[in-house]
Every structure is written in C-alpha cells, then in structure tokens.
Amino acid sequence: MAQDVQDNARKDWDTYFMDIAYMVSTRSRCPRRHVGTVLVQGKKLLGTAYNGAPMGVADCSEDGCMIVEEYELQVEDGEERMIKKQRCIRTIHAEQNLLLFTDRIDREGSTVYVTDQPCWTCANMLANSGVKEIAYHRAYSKDSDKVIALMRVKGIVFRHLSAYEPPAQAGMTVVS
C-alpha cells in the first residue's frame, strides 16, 4: 500500500527532466525569455545549459538587449508576405550552449529537453548533433512550421509537452 502511494506521487520522466530544464532556465539573465535545456541519455542526465551572453561578457540585464530586426518571406495559401522578426543577438541560446559544452559521443541517440521550441538556427544545429529526440514545452511560433518540417525530414522525434506545468519557482512572463 505504501509503495502505491509513493509511485502515484512520483513524477514521470518527461516531467522530471522538463522540471530540471525549467530550473536551469532560472540562471538566465535575459529579460525577454529564460530558456533552459538538458541532455539525457536513457534516464541519465549528461548536461544542462541556459541562454545568456558569453562568459565574461556583460549580459542583457547589464548592457541591454541587442535587438536586430529580420524580415522573412513566407508563403501562406499561395500568397507571399514579409514577416518581421526581432531577435536578440547578445545571447547564446540554451541549445547552442548545450552543444558547446557536451561531447558528440554523449549526444548520439540522446534526448534534449528544452523549455522552448528551438528556433530555426538551434533546430539546424540540433538536427546535426546526433540527438534522436527533442521534447519542448513552450511553442515558438516564429519558426515552428519550418522546424517541425526539418525534424520530420531528419527523423528526429519532436514532441510538444503541451500539458506540462512548470514548477512555480521557474515562472517568468515571456516576451515574444
């Protein structure tokens, strides 16, 4: 009986690793979006990372965001339209930091849990990193369709954990 109660209270693996990713995101000093990610092989945690300026360089909370505007041509229902995107270029994304600070051999066949759906650049990097699966919580609509298509082509399992609830200690309001 005591075992049943303990098992019912125990978190599933997706929740466990996504909770860790969210707690890692609390290290970020980005005022727009805190992103955290973890690398998992089986059930073994191999690395963590968050978004931020390079080590030893002032971050956005100290020197402000470095926002650039980009325009992208999108075709919807046969009609072309230009979409304006704003991106901060001061920070290294969490997924990029994870790839910088983990070994390729550890990434082969592994799973990445990331608080936010990867942007196009991070998706490209992850697609070439050896991972077999990416699980994320918050959608990132600016690049979503392209990223989903890329993951399909690469055969990488790409899961949106939409029902997941982050730990209260990791909450922040996301600026789009």
From TrEMBL:
<dbReference type="Pfam" id="PF00383">
    <property type="entry name" value="dCMP_cyt_deam_1"/>
</dbReference>
<keyword id="KW-0862">Zinc</keyword>
<keyword id="KW-0479">Metal-binding</keyword>
<dbReference type="InterPro" id="IPR015517">
    <property type="entry name" value="dCMP_deaminase-rel"/>
</dbReference>
<keyword id="KW-0378">Hydrolase</keyword>
<dbReference type="InterPro" id="IPR035105">
    <property type="entry name" value="Deoxycytidylate_deaminase_dom"/>
</dbReference>
<feature type="domain" description="CMP/dCMP-type deaminase">
    <location>
        <begin position="12"/>
        <end position="158"/>
    </location>
</feature>
<dbReference type="InterPro" id="IPR016193">
    <property type="entry name" value="Cytidine_deaminase-like"/>
</dbReference>
<dbReference type="InterPro" id="IPR016192">
    <property type="entry name" value="APOBEC/CMP_deaminase_Zn-bd"/>
</dbReference>
<comment type="similarity">
    <text>Belongs to the cytidine and deoxycytidylate deaminase family.</text>
</comment>
<protein>
    <submittedName>
        <fullName>CMP deaminase</fullName>
    </submittedName>
</protein>
<dbReference type="InterPro" id="IPR002125">
    <property type="entry name" value="CMP_dCMP_dom"/>
</dbReference>
<dbReference type="InterPro" id="IPR016473">
    <property type="entry name" value="dCMP_deaminase"/>
</dbReference>
